[in-house]
Amino acid sequence: MRETPWGMWDPLPPGELVEELRALDAHWWLAGGFALEAWVGRPWREHDDIDAAISRPDQLRLRSLLEGWDPHAADPPGQLRPWAPGEELPPAVHDIWVRRGAGGPWKFQFMLDETEDGNWARWAHPPATT
Questions:
Q1: Residues paired with residue 109 on neighbouring β-strands, in sequence order
Q2: pLDDT digit string (tens) for 19-43?
Q3: What count of other Cβ atoms lies within 10 Å of the Cβ of residue 17?
Q4: Residue 107: closest CA among 33, 7, 5, 12
C-alpha cells in the first residue's frame, strides 16, 4: 500500500481488474508499468498502483459499470472530485481514480484516451510546434 495526498493505494492485481471489467462493453487496455511488463514478458518492480485506459467516447459505458464503486475524476488535475453517474467528463479531464467506497483505498486508475475518426490519437489536437 502507498500513501498519497488523496488517500491510500491498494491496487487490484491485473487478473482481478480483468474480472471486474469483464462486463464492460468497450475496448480497454492496461497502461503504465503493468503494460510495459506485459510487453517485455517479465516483471521488474513492485507496483503501487494499476493503470488502465479507455477511449474517451466510451467513458459513460465505464461509468455505468462502476455503479457500486466510488469513482473520482481528476478535475482539475491535481484534485479529485466524485464522478457522478451519467456525467460526461470534459476534455480537460484525463484521469479517473476508483475505490470500492468512500474513504477506502484506491484500487485502479483509468485514463481517458483521445480518438479521431474512431481511432486512438496521441492528441486530439496536436500541440503547436515552434
A1: 51, 97
A2: 999 999 999 887 765 555 666 666 6
A3: 20
A4: 12
For 124, list phi and psi in degrees, rounded to 5: -70, -40
At position 9, the amino acid (one-letter code) is: W
Q: What's the predicted TM-score (pTM) here?
A: 0.83
**DSSP structure string for 7-68:** EEE-PPPHHHHHHHTTT-SS-EEEEHHHHHHHHHTS--S--S--EEEEEGGGHHHHHHHTTT
Is the preceding omega at residue 77 within 30 degrees of 0, hence cis?
A: no
Number of H helices, E strands in the chain: 3, 9
**CB distance 54 to 27 below 8 Å:** yes
Asked if 12 and 48 touch (Cβ cutoff 8 Å), the reply is: no
Q: Which residue has the higher pLDDT, 80 or 43?
A: 80
- Would you call 94 exposed, middle or buried from its count of C-beta atoms within 10 A (0-12, 13-18, 19+)? middle
Burial degree of 73 (CB within 10 A; 0-12, 13-18, 19+): buried
Q: Across the chain, what does the average pLDDT equal? A: 85
